[in-house]
Specification:
The chain is α+β, with helices and mostly antiparallel strands. It is 16% helix and 36% strand. It has helices at 44-53, 120-125, 267-274, 277-295, 309-315; strands spanning 11-17, 23-34, 37-42, 61-68, 74-82, 85-86, 95-98, 134-141, 151-161, 168-170, 182-184, 187-191, 201-204, 207-214, 219-225, 230-238, 261-266, 317-321.
């Protein structure tokens, strides 16, 4: 089923600066609006790698994003001293950073997903999202011979398993070589070529069961897909764990799990992350500053001050490169 053409506009490359001050892509992320504020969401391991490259902690990290612009080109933006916030549960591979729309270049061609798109779990509880439902995820590519813009590819798949209380073993993103696999609550989604998608949003189209649908000459049972898309979750990684963790039927011997399966962190965990004290306090502080500015008599308000462009770039957008 066809999806809206502008869905891919919420997705950006996430990475760090290389030796030539170009972006070294680590993964992807996407923009979402929550309680009237903007955020960039990605996988925790993507944010951790960008911070490691910058040799800084997550709460004072520098990173880069690469996004498309309305003129058909792309821009790389470096964000200095950003405060990545990770989900309080160490078994949830999610991170987010405040990213209001005014931090984007004026010519950017980006979209923020609405808060209402984050409630797939409620639809699942109502029986409208389940195994077999069609899913979509957006993957960005950068073709070497045409670096003017990011190429968005939409992958189609289906839900193979629900996070029904049991946990799924996944490679340990803190140190997959030496640490044992983590066990997380997640969707398993079947995608062909499910690699290079870490941090991408995964969408699902909820369905409605129509019981005993009347027609002119017969009664039918039918399932109808809604036109709107919900965020099922965030693509964590391909489901790729050692044979010792998962058994499959293959001539009576243990083998590796099937390829083309992706692990998706549920969208409900995004809401939990954006409701952590750090983000709540930030939103409360913004509301207080706004209320104070509105309530202050005009005579008591400070005179407008010239914007220090150099400081602005040092604190928000260090540089903009085409």
């Amino acid at each position: 089923m066809r999806i809206q053409n502008d869905v891919s506009k919420c997705v950006v490359f996430v990475g760090c600066a290389d030796d030539q001050d170009e972006i070294r892509v680590v993964g992807t992320g996407f923009f979402v609006t929550y309680r009237n504020h903007g955020y960039l969401v990605t996988a925790r391991h993507v944010a951790s790698v960008t911070a490691a490259y910058a040799a800084k902690p997550l709460d004072r990290a520098s990173f880069m994003i690469r996004l498309n612009q309305s003129d058909g080109t792309a821009a790389s933006i470096e964000i200095a001293d950003a405060r990545w916030v990770v989900h309080p549960d160490e078994n949830v591979d999610l991170a987010a950073v405040s990213f209001e729309r005014d931090r984007l270049p004026p010519a950017s061609d980006c979209r923020y997903l609405p808060q209402t798109a984050l409630h797939a779990e409620e639809w699942q509880t109502a029986g409208c999202v389940g195994i077999g439902d069609i899913c979509y995820t957006v993957d960005l590519r950068r073709v070497l011979h045409d670096t003017k813009h990011n190429l968005a590819l939409v992958h189609t798949g289906s839900i193979a398993r629900l996070p029904d209380g049991a946990t799924t073993p996944v490679r340990n993103w803190d140190d997959e070589q030496w640490l044992p696999p983590k066990r997380i609550a997640a969707y398993l989604v079947e995608f062909l070529g499910a690699t290079g998608l870490s941090g991408s949003p995964v969408f699902v189209r909820p369905c409605l069961d129509v019981r005993e649908l009347q027609s002119a000459d017969r009664r039918l049972n039918a399932t109808i897909a809604r036109s709107d898309l919900l965020v099922l979750g965030v693509f964590q990684a391909p489901w790729d764990v050692p044979p010792s963790e998962v058994w499959a039927a293959s001539g009576g011997r243990g083998s590796t799990i099937p390829s083309g399966i992706g692990v998706v962190v549920p969208a409900a965990r995004i809401v939990e992350l954006l409701e952590t004290p750090v983000f709540r306090e930030s939103r409360a502080g913004s509301a207080q500053r706004l209320d104070g500015a509105v309530a202050a008599p005009a005579a008591q308000r400070p005179a407008p001050r010239a914007v220090d462009e150099e400081s602005l770039h040092a604190n928000k957008l260090v540089h903009l490169k085409r």
